[in-house]
Amino acid sequence: MGKRGAFIVIEGLDKSGKSTQAATLLRRLQDSQVSAKLIKFPDRTTTIGKMVDSYLRSESELDDHVIHLLFSANRWELASSIEESLKQGETIICDRYAFSGIAFSASKIRPGSHSYPLLDYAWCRSPDIGLPAPDIAIMLDVSQDVAQARGGYGEERYEKEDVQRRVRDVFVRIGEEFEGSGGKWLVVDADEKPDEVQTVIWDAVKDLVKGIEGPLEKLWDDKREAKNVDALYM
Question: Is residue 1 part of a domain?
Answer without folding.
Answer: no
